[in-house]
Amino acid sequence: MKRALVLVEGYTEERFVKDVLQEHFWSLHLCLIPTLLVTKMVKDGPNFRGGVTTFKKFANDVGRLLQGAGDALVTTCLDYDGLPADFPGMETRPTDKPSAQVAYVEQAIAAYFDDPRFLPYLALHEFEALLFASPDELPKAMTDMSKQAQFQAIRESYPTPEDIDNVNWPSKRIVSLFQTYRKALHGPLVAKRIGLERLRAECPHFDAWISKLEDFAKQ
Prior knowledge:
The chain is an alpha/beta fold. The chain is built from nine helices and seven strands. The protein has helices at residues 11-26, 55-69, 98-113, 137-141, 148-156, 170-177, 183-194, 196-202, 204-218; strands at residues 2-8, 30-36, 38-40, 48-49, 73-79, 118-119, 122-123. The strands form two sheets. Strands 1, 2, 5, 6 and 7 form a five-stranded parallel beta sheet that branches. The chain has a two-stranded antiparallel ribbon with strand order 3-4. α1 (11-26) packs parallel to α7 and α8 crosses α9.
């Protein structure tokens, strides 16, 4: 059984890996192991976890995982929007469409570590974009189908869920419709109900990451 260590931004992404991705990759004999970012170390106490603060801290986490990974793959599941400016590629991004920008930053991060076992993935623009892959599942989960048409209209305003812009982030659009939305509770639940197949069909950048993980599993 091969392993892939997935460095995740928070508990939502951790649950997403466990609840949505693990079963698929288990069938390919690849075990995905989510690991939360360590954002603050406290002497004689537990680690405080969640969120990307600086590239230095991120690099420490990646380096720690690579050091102990052996022949395992190390990958990430982080939001592209809100990524600190000190990350490789952020200051030199092309003035192009977001899909080209995020690919550029991912390549720059990969080049920094220069390790074939490392595969960076940044969610475009953020995790909540995936929830727009279905016009029905989030309104159902929020038990408020009266907002379904508005939710669907947002999705239909963009070519893909990943194109929903960072001027008004997907998460902010969701909260504007469903004030009781809680990312850690509803995010993984809705993503699981949508299903991996539809998430991949609707979100090409996400699909490309999954395909690369599948390629690793089949090597």
